[in-house]
Specification:
The structure holds 3 protein chains of 3 kinds.
Chain A lengths: L1 H37 L14 H7 L4 H30 L3 H13 L4 H12 L4 H6 L21 H23 L4 H10 L4 H29 L3 H6 L7 H9 L6 H38 L9 H30 L16 H42 L2 H7 L4 H4 L6 H10 L6 H26 L2 H9 L4 H12 L1 H17 L2 H7 L6 H9 L4 H29 L4 H5 L4
Chain B lengths: L1 H7 L1 H24 L7 H8 L3 E7 L3 H18 L2 E7 L2 H13 L10 E4 L1 H9 L28 E2 L2 E2 L4 E8 L1 E5 L10 H10 L12 H14 L12 H18 L14 H9 L5 E4 L4 H7 L7 E4 L5 E9 L7 H12 L1 H8 L17 H8 L16 E2 L4 H15 L4
Parallel strand pairs in B: 1-2, 1-3, 10-11
Antiparallel strand pairs in B: 3-10, 4-5, 6-10, 7-8, 7-9
Helix pairs in contact in B: 3-12, 8-9, 13-14
Chain C lengths: L5 E10 L2 E10 L4 E5 L6 H9 L6 E9 L2 E2 L5 H4 L1 E4 L11 H8 L6 H14 L15 H14 L4 E5 L7 H17 L4 E4 L3 H7 L3 E3 L5
Parallel strand pairs in C: 3-8, 3-9, 6-7, 7-8
Antiparallel strand pairs in C: 1-2, 1-4, 4-5
Helix pairs in contact in C: 3-5, 5-6
Classes of the chains: A mainly alpha, B alpha/beta, C alpha/beta.
Amino acid sequence: MHMTNRALNILFWAAPFLVILLLTAPLLAGLLGVAAPALGYFPTLGGLELTWDHLHKAMHVPGFWHSVHLSIWIGLATTLISFVIVVGFFAAFWDAPIFGKITRFISPLMSVPHAAAAFGFAFLFAPSGWLIRILSPWATGFDRPPDWLIINDPLGYALLAGLVLKEVPFLFLMCLTAASQINVDQRLKLARTLGYGRIWAWLTVVMPALYRQIRLPIFAVIAFSSSVVDVALILGPNLPPSLPVQILRWMNDPDIEMRFVAAAGAVFQLAATLVALLIWRLLEMLCSYLMRQMQTKGMRHQNDQILRGLFSGTMLTLVLISMASLIILGIWSLAGYWRFPEALPRSMNFSRWMENAPYFWGPTFNAIQIGIVATLISVGQTLICLENECRHNIRLTQKALRLIYLPLIVPQIAFISGISILLVRYGLDGSFWPVALMHVVFVFPYTYLALEASFHDLDPRYMQTAAALGKSQNRIFFQIKLPMLLRPILTALALGFAISVAQYLPTLLIGAGRVPTITTEAVALASGGDRRLIGIYALVQTLLPAVGFALALALPKLLYPNKIYFAKQREA
Amino acid sequence: MRKNRFFRSPAAKQLALASIIALGAPTHALAQDQAPDPANWESVLEQAQGQTVYFNAWGGAPNINNYIAWVGDKLKAEYGVTLEHVKLEDTATAVSRVITEKAAGRDSGGSVDLIWINGENFAAMKEQGLLIDDNWAEQLPNYQYADIEGKPTLTYDFTVPVEGQESPWGMAQLTFYYDSEILPEPPTSLEGLATWAEENPGRFTYAAPPNFIGTTFLKQVLYGVVDDPSILREPATKDVFDEATAPLWTYLEEIKPHLWRDGAIYAKDTTQLKNLLADGEIDIAMTFNPGEASSAINAGELPPSVRSFVMDYGSMGNSHFVTIPYNANAKAGAMVVANFLLSAEAQARKADENVWGDPSVLAINALPAEQKAYFDALELGAATLQGEEFGKTLLEPHASWATMLEEEWSKRFMRDM
Amino acid sequence: MVEHSLHLKDLRISLGDELLFHLDAEIKAGEVLSVMGPSGSGKSTLLNAISGFLSPRFTCEGQILLDGQDVTHQDPSLRKIGLMFQDPLLFPHMSVEDNLLFALPRGGSKHERCEKVREKLRAVNLEELGPRDPLTLSGGQQSRIALMRLLLSNPRALLLDEPFSSLDVELRARVRQFVFAQARENRLPVLMVTHDQADAEAAGGPIINLLNHK
């Protein structure tokens, strides 16, 4: 008993250091593994001298600067639009009944993987997509699809729309968590009694506090959308493509010289993401300056009906589009021959599902295994780190823990290929554990993000009461904290599982193709463009995390039937 | 029998397991140092027994995936070889992996055993010494029936001599297809195509190079406009290239405004072309697999009225192969797979349009009667061209042409800031 | 019944260079010391110091003697000082009975332990509440269960932090009565922090104001 207690204490003490090492070491190694070939050093490929040539060569590829520009613009525009939609909706409808209804729709949307959402979007909005099929020919007069440039447009508007569709639910949930931290209702009441309009009240008294809480998720959105690969392959421009897709092409070029250029491209990608973050920082400063100017003028902005209508309209449209995307994926997965402009296929059946079931079962099982292992490790680590912080009250560790968010900010494509060389070198690629551990690097930041607030929110007097009853810290941790945090822990597990299932590049490169998951299979099949199969795989890919989220909702009620505490907790 | 009983006892299993663990590593390493010798086929079969072969092949087409799964079942039953299909989004991923392994110094026990490959990827691997050095492919027992005489692309892959470093698997020919209900008379000459495109704006496009089919379309047009096609078989120099390709660029720029989406974007690949035709967005699509249209009709993806055609001056043709990286872990097993892929049974099933529809590399008329029977049972769909209809095969230009065509196309058609 | 005592010997607590208070008090078994003072005077700091949750930002000099034993720097879980807050803080994921079982020190078979808990509940006529979800209980019931939970852990002293301020006037008197009676019965020294003069007077013990102990 005493021994286990001591072992546990040591574990809690050492955890933060281990975590920081586990998360930052691969990152640094990966960056090094990319920077070296970018500067020409890659001995087995004959690169022995340091040179700027490859960076130059990358810059002189036709369309290169356009690619860079695209990445920065997509990263910023996606974030700005999603942010405005989410914050606008929060401001306009925080205490209205529609808020709860939308929340119930938004959470499940989190489980739709990016690629699946992108395919659904394309199937919906292409000139031969479902929308025009439904309207043709009776409303549009089209009996053949119009020659309109919608998907893969050169300026990336389709890519932008597809990303916004996915980032809005993410930011929505992050805002919801953050809002529970800052006593929104009291603040609002105060401002409203002073005669401030709904939206303006929110922006002046809630927004500044809320923004501090969601800043990190916003940075993650910028970094993600400026370096996204899968969605860009489906919806993005291709002449030239955005930078990350271009890098992937270079990596896959049979000309081995191009691997140096790909590494150089990865360095530019890192820079592009940093520039996007920097511009956002400047925007932040500008906005806070403007806000301060306007606040002091005492304007009340009570007349915000039009704006409110606009925000509810936008949010409803987004939810509808997302739902329709899932439906159209379902229809395609069942479709027989489907001629334009018929609104539905001539025949629908399950034969494709039956034929493919034996093939997607293995990868699905792999994805589940990896997801469970990576998520359990991540949530376990998160809890141990948080508990350690709480016990030792170490400020330094807290600051150092910020390092763990690096994997969210540094573009995957800029360091994964670097790590894979190292792993191959030591024969660690191509098996289950390296893949699962690599997933931890990307899952952990999210589980930490999801649990941190709930953990700190737990009334410390419960723990003091238990300690005064003579219970050890370890016992309190297991018997009081963990059960009381059951719901947020389960939500973090579901979120982590969803993140793990969606990982493409790490699974592919570290798994050396020997650990296929539903996601790597889906992308491989997507390269064939068979819409029926894409429908099937996208739905399976969506179903996995959806089951996770459903379990997270249902389990507390099953484990603790009739406990009001779990019933009244808000899902977030 | 006695042996069997022995291995069923639990103690023996444990013993066997222990010895595998104890000896596994060294025997493993020994086996890598020397590639198995296919001339001694019996010993290859023996070594292959129980091996797992990781076959890295493009995984974008469910019918091909199903075919590979069938091959796996066969191999398991007949040779005790386990085939794992590593589904790639792009063949170059496998090449990259071998490069990564070489970079990391893993010269044996590599993770890639067999790759579906041709053209630039093969040229790159061969040049970098990433393949088995020996001429193993020509010594495979089933290689004797390959149609070496009739199919020059089996010995020169994009002008690079194959030299037995990859084993033939299938044939490809640039084929156009269209819906005969919408377009009764497709244009079969370059001028005809240009005129038709102008009269029917937005109804034609090709895939953007460096996509395979896109680059092939450029070569196809180049053959049609170049004065002396023989220069294409030599490595391209800047001057020769500029002069020879000038009419090609004129042609492409002339049709550009009449293309789908006004030529602002191009299709991604053959599958998108197929989807666009299925949706009625375009009227003419192209593919490298002459059986694709019939196959797609059978799968309910295209209407039964679809037909195929080739250009009147001939069409680009090549072959695809499988190859074994120098550091493959299961070389013997990979050879057994390559050999089986060449068998009449496997080739005939592959040519079946209800399965895949990929033309065979074998000289069918030279096959022994019982093997030829596999092919006699096949029926080609109405959308598949046969024999004479294919016309002349245009050989792939030297690999340097492809690289320069892709670069120049990017310069001219890629949007820049 | 053991006679417990709590002795705050020359206790000085300061934040940085600023002395918050300087206290010397002895509380005998069954006696209630009421500590009053405006907010910011250091009432909760005093409680934290005695129960062992003092933040490291404070410095604590002097001694806290429990039954004559120095516990000033002991781990809170080893002190055996019971804490009661304004809110009853019953663990919401456990039933009433589980809350009480959690407090009971180790030892005894499962059956014996349950019997002990039931006996305790019976003694205060709350027997029927055992299987209930604590959040379904009334405020007064919750407070009484919280006290029972405390007593089951065999504490050597009680600390009450504004324990009755969340209850309405009528209930307040009854719960107060109940708590003090239990403390006397168990021969426990009690330190109560309150801002309510009525609470302090009802306790019937000495009353000190922290402002006078600078």
